[in-house]
Amino acid sequence: AEIFLEKCIVNPRHIEMQVLGDHHGNVIHLFERDCSIQRRHQKLIEIAPSPQLNDQQRAVLGDLAVRAATAVGYQNAGTVEFLLDANNDFYFMEMNTRLQVEHTVTEQITGIDIVREQIRIAAGLPLRYRQDEVQRRGYAMEFRINAEDPKNDFLPSFGRITRYFAPGGPGVRTDGAIYTGYVIPPYYDSLCVKLTIWALTWEELLDRSRRALQDIGVYGVKTTIPYHLEII
């Protein structure tokens, strides 16, 4: 008796806006992330800011995200997510009412510690930043290093890590809990470590990303590191 119809958006871009809202009615955005590089609807690489957007689009999306969070009295870190089609039209997809895996790229381009802001909000403190004080600098990219075999249909690869070392150098950040001797169990998500790279220019970001992916060492299990290098 009823039909539910959804618009089909072919080859969309996945653009999300990071927002912060406190208990005093203040809401700001921290610019956008481009999360279009996915496999099986799971994000692989996230970029901030999006190379796809111009400043006018960025301003419109930021305003929409802030208005949406303000309308529901939102209090926390959150993400308002959109799809961008080939005609540069935006569509609201969802809001994630939490901190997301890829928040690191936003922290790198804004210099704002989002986790610290969450704790301040939970304590009832007002936001420390006005919208016009939030600035972005450079580009950042996050790689999700998963324990999967890209050459075998991304089959999960669990077991003991025989050797692990993290890359270093300017603009390189790693977030993870693995170590040499750590055993990756088969019961949970395959994410091992998040590798986040920052640079002042897009070209330098690609160079640093390539070097860091070549430098990181995760031995004993198969990982998506070679796959990320192919994408770069």
Write up what this structure looks like.
The protein is an alpha+beta fold and 232 residues long. Helix content is 24%, strand content 35%. The protein is built from 5 helices and 14 strands. The strands form 4 sheets. Strands 5-4-1-2-3-6-13-11 form an 8-stranded antiparallel β-sheet. The protein has a two-stranded antiparallel sheet with strand order 7-8. Helix 4 runs antiparallel to helix 5. 36% of the residues are buried. The model has no long low-confidence stretch (mean pLDDT 95).
Weakly predicted, low-confidence segments? none
Query: Structural class, judged by helices and strands?
Result: alpha+beta
Could you spell the SSE succession in H and E letters? EEEHEEHHEEEEEEEEHEH
Give the biggest sheet: 8 strands, antiparallel
Shape category: globular
Question: How does the SSE layout of this entry go?
Answer:
Elements: E1 13-21, E2 27-39, E3 42-48, H1 55-71, E4 76-84, E5 90-96, H2 103-110, H3 114-122, E6 139-146, E7 148-149, E8 155-156, E9 159-160, E10 163-165, E11 172-176, E12 183-184, E13 191-199, H4 202-215, E14 217-219, H5 225-231
Antiparallel strand pairs: 1-2, 1-4, 2-3, 3-6, 4-5, 6-13, 7-8, 9-12, 10-14, 11-13
